[in-house]
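Quick question, first post here. What does this chain look like in 3D?
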Amino acid sequence: MLSVILIWIYMFFTTFLIGYGILCLLTRFVPYRIRHMDSYLICGLVGVTVYAQFVSLLGRVGALANLILCMVCVLTAWICRHPLGSVLRNVWNNIRENRLGERGRMLGILFLFLLFAYGTSRGIIHYDTGLYHAQSIRWLEEYGVVKGLGNLHCRLAYNSSSFALSALYSMAFLGGQSYHCAAGFIAWILAKVCMEVIGALRKRRLHTSDFARAMGIYYLVIIFDEMVSPASDYFMVLLAFYIVIRFLELAECEVKEILPYALLCVLGVFLMTVKLSAALILLLVIYPAYYLIRGSRWKETAVYLALGIVTALPFFIRNVLLSGWLVYPFTQIDLFHVAWKIPKGMADYDAKEIQVWGRGYTDVMRYDISVREWLPDWFRSLAGSDKLLVAAAVVSLAVLFVYGLGMLCGWWRRRPGTLIVQVTVACSFIFWLFTSPLIRYGCVYVYLMPAVVIGGVYDAILTRTEERSGRRNRVKLHSQSGADAWENGANAMRSAAEPVSVKVFRLCGMIAVMFLLIYKCAALGKEIVVSYRNDYWIAQKDYENYETQSYEINGVTFYYPVNGDQVGYKAFPSAPAKTDVQLLGEGIEDGFASVLGY
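> Answer (accepted):
Ran it through. Tokens below.
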């Protein structure tokens, strides 16, 4: 646990400074006041991950990469010392004077920091981590990106930017173990964002974003004993929750500036580089793009496009180097004819295997069966809670159709920002359901679908009722004057906020959210007590390793497991089975080619 805390402190300062520098530069061109401190951390995480990916194109992601990162952070702190000092002084003054309960909020954040550091120090290592996650990270630590690595094992071509982030902060270059703390760090940031729902409960008013926060807490509890593993699924889901919550919050606050929406869309581009299946999150781009084009803000548009291109560029370059394909394992885009290219037949087989596995089958020959056949089998195989949530998500699709029609017809107040989030989540859910519906691939869409739709309807009903009550009371007050008007005005404002229908909806929403929070927090506490062991207080739980046997190719020793297909981290280089490949040069750093050609 101590090792996790120390690495997180290092991650906090480096990501905060990089994020502050990036946002400080952007807000000089497009004036905007950053409202949340976590914005700097998330922006910095994107910045250092993109940096780590570029570094991996040149060589190993290790000591030198961290040294350069620290130098950039020191330079940023010096250049931005005056505005940065002002920000830090404001934070300190708020804590010292306890403005808006800042002292209690900071203690809560510190408690979450320690709690999630505890969870990240131990737990369950994901099966795929022993299969290829650990090996992918070690390749980055030892060599960076190697041409044709996917020929050694196709899953090593599953390019995820999260592996570069994990390699950057693994500290393997210190000579000890390779740490894997990045997923837990992002989980802590999301936990901080989700706990903002407490403020909504105090105000007795829930918005759509608060329902999304509640589902975010639900997911955090589920992965609390799993986030020790550097699986790309966790990175994707955590960041998707963050994007949706903050986008909804901006829409609810009726923020008119385009910058925060556009930056969340750039974060959506980054999310695609974490896991390609999240690409439909980019539908959110429609909202800022509409206002940018409508206002002919071409220079600002160019800035956001440039940010998106820089964010995605190393991902696509790494794809080509690892597999020879622009987007592996999808062979519809065939642009490159290089010696290290994975054969088309193998790539197509891999793509089909991903889809049938998500549908609950292990036989690729079942790829072509109809939806009518596999969908009922898939649904029956789900756990009870997952069945309930998937059913709620499907019902929410119908509700969204009626709700959207009501907005278009003027029945509900038009909130285009909220609607675009709901449509994006719905499209992502449908795409996931009919392609590869493994729960861990798309649970974020299952969880968010009822949250943003049912929560959105709830929010719209309360808003409409409150507006009507407010108008009635303003009419009554218009004929009064003096002290009577003042006293009656205060009473009217209170009654305007609490008609019977509003009380009912508010009470139902608060009970639902409170029940979810109490139930899941109690379950989490029970799980911590039951699984408690007096270990991992100093060092984080290491990767799991398995018994292997070796073979040679051109004098280079490779490893594969004696039983099963998991290898782990230590046996390097390795693959789940003995592989027949050829080296592109004298050493493995020169790359691999298939003996079958491409």
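The radius of gyration is 26 Å.
Residues 159 and 589 are 17 Å apart (CA to CA).
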